[in-house]
Design brief:
heterodimer; A: 6-stranded mixed beta sheet; 4-stranded antiparallel beta sheet; 10 helices; 10 strands; 39% helix; 23% strand; B: 307 residues; two-stranded antiparallel sheet; 11 helices; 4 strands
Chain lengths: 256, 307
């Protein structure tokens, strides 16, 4: 990788006495699908939170597209091109499906206070463009028919799709998915894998947290394994799964 | 019947003003779960600024219509700046503090604003210059004055604009998103600090207009006028379901009507023992009743839509 899209170097994060992340490094290139795996409590979601500016790391740096990321300022990180979904779905559940995606367009639009108050022609055009692109995204993830429903009333699988559509609305260079396949059955997982591949083909790199090792290894180009806040292995799915420390972390000592 | 209709008109007038102020309480609550007890004093500042400007302009012989428009504009500008400053100085540093800290700050701020106003404008009453049309129309014995008509029409217009802003614009969408989940809204690129500041500014602009209305309706302004008005508007917001915009509007109108009817009939009902000067009691009876029997308010629900 000549210049990686994302380069996290020796990230450390503590919560009181708990060392959630210890010198975790991860690099990924544009157009790649990278998996972040590890047992519960390994620090995967903490790493996502550092990446998206929710937490400030205690040590280490994150560079994105060649420049340092603004730590602790999520809206600025979104503007730089990282979007995410959540392990436990976090939609604006009282707003419509379409409105949820339209909120995602916020970061790429400019309508100011004056425009909103006086309904200028420019604002109206922008609003129409936002609505249009939001509809296209709903179509892209396959829930266009649900556009006017209240987000909280969607089925679980559709809520996951909506979260992805909302994240894509920010036009990310990197889409971070936190356990996107959790609670899905086999056929839903396959559809999700196809969607993830399509997003990658359309030019967005993907970083995903997942527990289903088989699903991840079929989907990812590259996998990083965390355990107790440390990076214990990385490489292609085949290399990683053969790694003795990985087997130990998942299955316990003595098996390997 | 005449008394009933007349008091209904009076109540709707008063209620329109309560509704405008209640919107300020409810918007701020919706977006950051804070009861901004200083909001009533922002109303007072709006009234006092407008009175000062009006007195100066009429003194220079400016036509009354122009003077009134300028006074409202200046009051709105001052209150918007004040709202912005209040959020920035008093509440933003406490964004991550326990909920009690900003609440106590709000009460302190209310006292500070009242005392500053007493220093600037003195403790006596300022009177509203006679710039308003004194015309009135009579319909089946019910008298509607031009001021009442103006207040009701203007308040309705402002509320309609606010609803459109919140429901139909990108900015409104960002406000609703921030109210539901500020952390996620930030990840969507919403600058929640800006949205919160904007919410204070809008609420304060409405408060300024409400301040001018109250001063015009009662013909006076005083540094303490925001206190009772603020409490009643807060009651209206709770009555409608705090955090709910249409709820604040409905709560304001209802409270105004209850108060006016109560004032109109209390003398007859108690055989003259209580006079209409007991009208303030009704607002708080309503508050107590709502809190006991329907604490989420008329339009509020546990999983209500905020902002």
């Amino acid at each position: 990788m000549p210049c990686p899209l994302l380069e996290a170097v020796r990230i450390g994060k503590r919560f009181g006495g708990l060392r959630a992340l210890n010198d975790v490094s991860l690099a990924l290139g544009a157009g790649s699908i990278t998996g972040l795996i590890g047992p519960n409590g390994a620090g995967k979601t903490t790493f996502f939170n550092v990446l998206t500016g929710i937490y400030k790391p205690d040590s280490g740096t994150v560079r994105f597209a060649g420049e340092p990321l603004p730590a602790g300022r999520p809206h600025a990180v979104a503007a730089r091109g990282i979007a995410r979904t959540f392990q436990n779905i976090r939609l604006f559940s009282n707003m419509t499906v379409l409105e949820n995606v339209m909120v995602g367009r916020h970061v790429r639009t400019h309508a100011g206070v004056m425009g909103a108050v006086f309904r200028t022609a420019e604002t109206r055009q922008e609003e129409a463009a936002i609505r249009d692109s939001a509809r296209k995204l709903l179509d892209y993830v396959g829930i266009a028919a649900q556009a006017q429903r209240i987000a909280g009333t969607l089925s679980y699988g559709d809520q996951r799709r909506l979260e992805i559509a909302r994240a894509l609305a920010t036009e990310p260079k990197l889409l971070a998915l936190d356990e996107p396949a959790a609670g899905m059955n086999a056929s839903e997982r396959m559809q999700l894998a196809n969607l993830v591949r399509r997003i990658r083909e359309d030019g967005t790199a993907i970083l995903l947290i997942e527990h289903d090792v088989k699903w991840v290894s079929q989907l990812c180009d590259h996998i990083t394994v965390l355990d107790y806040g440390e990076c214990i292995a990385e490489g292609t799915p085949r290399e990683v799964l053969a790694h003795s420390k990985v087997i130990e972390a998942y299955l316990g000592k003595g098996v390997a | 019947m005449d008394i009933f209709l007349q008091q209904l008109v009076n109540g709707l007038t008063l209620g329109s003003i309560y509704a405008l102020v209640a919107l300020g309480y409810t918007m701020v609550y919706g977006i950051m779960e804070l009861i901004n007890f200083a909001h009533g004093d922002v109303v007072m500042v709006g009234a006092m600024v407008a009175l000062t400007v009006l007195q100066a302009l009429t003194g220079w012989g400016v036509p009354s219509g122009v003077a009134l428009a300028v006074a409202v504009a200046v009051a709105m500008a001052v209150c918007m700046a004040l709202g912005l400053a209040i959020e920035r100085v008093a509440y933003r540093p406490l964004r991550r503090a326990p909920k009690l800290a900003p609440l106590i700050t709000a009460i302190g701020l209310s006292i500070v604003l009242q005392q500053l106003a007493a220093l600037i404008w003195g403790r006596s009453y300022l009177s509203f210059p006679s710039v308003l049309p004194t015309a009135s129309m009579s319909w089946h014995g019910v008298i509607i004055t031009a001021i009442q008509g103006l207040i009701i029409v203007l308040a309705t217009l402002l509320m309609a604009i606010l609803l459109l802003l919140v429901k139909r614009t990108a900015l409104g969408r960002a406000m609703r998103a921030t109210a539901q989940n500020p952390a996620v809204a930030q990840l969507m690129g919403v600058n929640t600090d800006r949205i919160i500041a904007f919410t204070f500014v809008i609420g304060s602009a409405l408060a300024a207009v409400a301040g001018v209305m109250v001063a015009a309706y009662y013909n006076v302004g005083n540094y303490t006028m925001g206190f009772m008005l603020g409490l009643k508007a807060f009651t209206a917001a709770v009555l409608g379901g705090i955090g709910n915009l249409p709820g604040a509007m409905l709560g304001g109108l209802l409270l105004g009507v209850v108060e006016a009817l109560g004032a109109g009939y209390i003398g007859d009902l108690t055989g003259g023992f209580f006079g209409s000067n007991y009208k303030d009691v009704f607002a708080f009876l309503v508050l107590i009743g709502v809190l006991i029997f329907h604490p989420n308010g008329l339009l509020g629900s546990r999983a209500r839509e905020k902002v």
